[in-house]
């Protein structure tokens, strides 16, 4: 499945630029960490370039790595460019995508989002993989490089697996996922430390924001088996919102008995950000794409509305039977 020329491309380039999508999540950070650690294992120089600052809880995973947040007035030199955990250059945001598209160096994508755009020379897309770190593992297996995986790589690979599968519970988890996990644990990986680093780092205001959203801001639509949660700029400010504070909050809706779809909406300076989640026979990516400039996976998609929270909510409510 992995193109033959990938190996020769990796061999013949020594300065790797590693990028991931805007608003990097656990899989994005896990992927770049695993790939950077692999670069180091192979004796390459590398630089990780993020479109924006990763959330605070993910920064400890980046300790000791060479990474920067993209700035339009800086130059980033390398001879091979990697796009990890995204399937179109638009996913790095307007400013960085202009830079990305202008680069003449060879580009490699490693990703698991469906329907990749044609934006790199070597696209490696495995939509059935539960995370991009699983794609990376697959590629290393195809290249006969599994023995190169060290503890540093294992940490990144596990971080992506754990976060993109809701701790190994989503339908995307396969026997292969668990075989990969078994290999990572056999290297001495302390998996409980990764769970604690991601899930046991709540601030009091973060918990209070989540409690408030559930208690006061959850609209239930039992006939549609759908819940909608929304937070305004003022509400976020009241609870000293920090990036990442609302991550996974939308999944709470899916945990309600009899509900199989959830929408979380958050007001920002630019407009309203949406997170759509579903399970079972219900899919949300087509809806997100058709109505809210978004897309993603069948069960997890994002979206955006350029306008007020009130208008975004009104639009969503008018379309409620189509979700
Ligand atoms: Mn992912």
- What is the succession of H and E elements? HEHEEEHEEHHHHHEEHHEEHEEH
User: Any idea what the radius of gyration is?
Assistant: 20 Å
Give the overall pLDDT as a whole number: 96
For this structure, the CATH topology of the largest domain is: inorganic pyrophosphatase (n-terminal core)
Strand line-up across the major sheet: 3-2-1-4-5-6
Number of helices: 12
Kindly estimate the percentage of residues that lie in beta strands according to DSSP: 15-25%
Distance between the termini: 35 Å
Bound molecules: manganese (II) ion
Low-pLDDT stretches are: none
Structural class: alpha/beta
The gross shape turns out to be globular
Indicate the CATH class of the largest domain: Alpha Beta
Number of strands: 12
By CATH, the architecture of the largest domain is named Alpha-Beta Complex
Determine the fraction of residues in helical runs and give it as a percent range.
25-40%
What kind of sheet is the major sheet? Answer: 6 strands, parallel
What is the domain total for the residues? 2
CATH superfamily of the largest domain: inorganic pyrophosphatase (n-terminal core)
Q: What is this structure, in a nutshell?
A:
This protein is α/β, with parallel strands linked by helices and 323 residues long.
């Amino acid at each position: 499945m992995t193109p033959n020329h990938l190996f020769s491309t990796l061999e013949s380039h020594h300065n790797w630029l590693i990028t991931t999508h805007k608003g990097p999540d656990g899989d994005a950070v896990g992927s770049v960490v695993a790939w950077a650690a692999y670069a180091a294992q192979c004796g390459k120089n590398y630089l990780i370039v993020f479109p924006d600052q990763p959330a605070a809880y993910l920064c400890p995973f980046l300790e000791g790595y060479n990474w920067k947040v993209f700035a339009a007035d800086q130059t980033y030199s390398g001879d091979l460019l990697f796009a990890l955990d995204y399937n179109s250059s638009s996913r790095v945001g307007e400013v960085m995508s202009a830079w990305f598209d202008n680069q003449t160096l060879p580009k490699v994508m490693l990703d698991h989002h469906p329907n990749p755009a044609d934006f790199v020379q070597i696209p490696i897309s495995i939509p059935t993989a539960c995370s991009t770190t699983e794609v990376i593992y697959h590629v290393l297996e195809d290249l006969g490089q599994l023995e190169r995986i060290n503890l540093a790589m294992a940490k990144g690979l596990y971080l992506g697996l754990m976060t993109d599968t809701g701790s190994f519970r989503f339908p995307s988890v396969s026997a292969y996922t668990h075989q990969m996990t078994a290999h990572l644990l056999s290297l001495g990986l302390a998996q409980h430390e990764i769970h604690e680093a991601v899930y046991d780092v709540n601030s009091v205001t973060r918990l209070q924001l989540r409690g408030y959203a559930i208690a006061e801001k959850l609209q239930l639509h039992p006939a549609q088996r759908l819940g909608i949660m929304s937070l305004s700029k003022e509400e976020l400010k009241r609870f000293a919102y920090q990036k990442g504070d609302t991550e996974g909050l939308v999944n709470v809706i899916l945990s309600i008995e009899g509900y199989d779809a959830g929408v979380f909406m958050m007001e920002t300076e630019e407009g309203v950000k949406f997170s759509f989640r579903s399970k079972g026979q219900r899919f949300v990516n087509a809806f997100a794409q058709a109505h809210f400039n978004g897309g993603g996976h069948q069960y997890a998609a994002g979206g955006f509305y350029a306008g007020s929270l009130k208008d975004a909510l009104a639009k969503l409510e008018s379309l409620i039977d189509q979700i």
